[in-house]
Amino acid sequence: MTRSLPLVGFLLLVALFGFGIWWNTQHDPREVPSPLIGKSAPAFELPLLDDPSRTASKAAMLGKPYLVNVFASWCIACGEEHPVLMAQGRTLGVPLIGYDYKDDPADAKAWLAQHGNPYDLVVADREGRTAIDFGVYGAPESFLIDAKGVIRYKHIGPFTPEVIERQLKPLIAQLKQEAP
């Protein structure tokens, strides 16, 4: 009996590993449901990247829908997403807010100077404390927030032109119709 224990243990590990592979092929890991969808976005007041003496806040953004895009200079996937935002960011019809996440401000400014700045404004969260309130797992992530300050959509990972056309733009059009 004790001789078969290693074999049984090995077979259990193989079964567990096989289940993990199957699970990942059946589910998109970027489709992590957010408990914040349909709920009020967390209150925030963060310094502007280009002028830390000024801030942007949820309260100041109320009255119009906006898109928050979490990025960082150290984020490889953000580099993949950035050309898409440069090409399509101004065509969305809502303010695009850059959210610099756990980044040195000098690095973020240099990165934007090198790659271009698609954002209407950029806030900095060097410590990542406000990101915790938003449920940010990493960068890039994006949140579409309606005119009343309610999170209506969350996208994990880089935006692609297809995602913007098929998911984001129809939601933005819907929010604009709902806005007072």
Give the H and E element order. Answer: HEEHEHEHEHEEH
Which residues sit in consecutive blocks of at least 5 with pLDDT less than 50?
A: none
Shape: globular
**Largest β-sheet summary:** 5 strands, mixed
Helix percentage range? 40-55%
Can you tell me the CATH superfamily of the largest domain? Glutaredoxin
Q: What is the CA-CA span between the terminal residues?
A: 73 Å
Total E-strand runs: 7
> How many domains, in number, for the residues?
2
| Percentage of residues in DSSP E strands | 15-25%
> What CATH architecture label of the largest domain applies?
3-Layer(aba) Sandwich
Number of helices, counting only DSSP H or I runs of 4 residues or more: 6
Mean pLDDT: 88
